[in-house]
Write a structure and sequence with these properties.
alpha+beta
Amino acid sequence: MQVNWKKAWYWDTILIIIGTGLMALGIISCFDAAGLVTGGFSGVAILVKSWTKGLIEGGIPLWLTNVVLNVPLFLLAIRLKGFGFVKKALVGDGSLTIWLAVLPALNLSGDDLLLSAVFGGVIMGAGIGLVFLGQGTTGGTDMMAAIIQKYVRHYSIAQIMQFIDGMIVLVGMYVFGMQRALYAIIAVFLVTKVSDGLIEGLKFSKAAYIITSKPAEISEMVMKDLDRGVTGISAKGMYSGEEKLMLFCVVNKKEIVALKEKVDEIDKNAFVIVTDAREVHGEGFIENI
């Protein structure tokens, strides 16, 4: 029996829970431990904890600041945009809050700021990637930016979010110093790269355009040896004036090497162009079951 994973809400929920757990691990054990403010409500929580250490032992917990910041934001978002806008974010933020409350504070990288930035960025980036794969979010500055954009439509949500996060990082620079702010920028870069790589890497293929004098033989090879479909596109060489059949096919990353080798065996004069193909939907790739 086949399961429609796209409609399996519990699969998305599992991804969100695992992802927020990794996010919390990166925040608690790397960023908070090293005083790295990387933006977002987690960055504000780290700042608040640092500011209040003189008032209460250990400062205000990260999870509590996260709740205090998000609750009014969620209520405002529900009023302005409806419950459907925030329902996935409720799962993500609730899960992140619980993880922040229950995970122990482990200093994974000691006093090494570079290790904190690198491992924190990788761990949190992987967590964010899983949350996005689960079609979720954790509220925070992205939701705030969406609300603000309702009133300043000449700015995009991404621009508003970058401004908010930039201001948080600047405050972190004032509190923890320039050096930690520079390491925080490294962490932000890694978070973005790892999360994007995780999302795109799971749906990443190669597209090949093949111009050859033996289209029939190469098409047969692609369909029989690689078990992939191939499309013939009418083309004309503008220098020679010859009418040709250009072949187009999409294969996974492992198959592209074999494709190039087999094309070279059949026609050494073939002209092959290989490009990245993302979000390939259809038989043999991402399928709607």
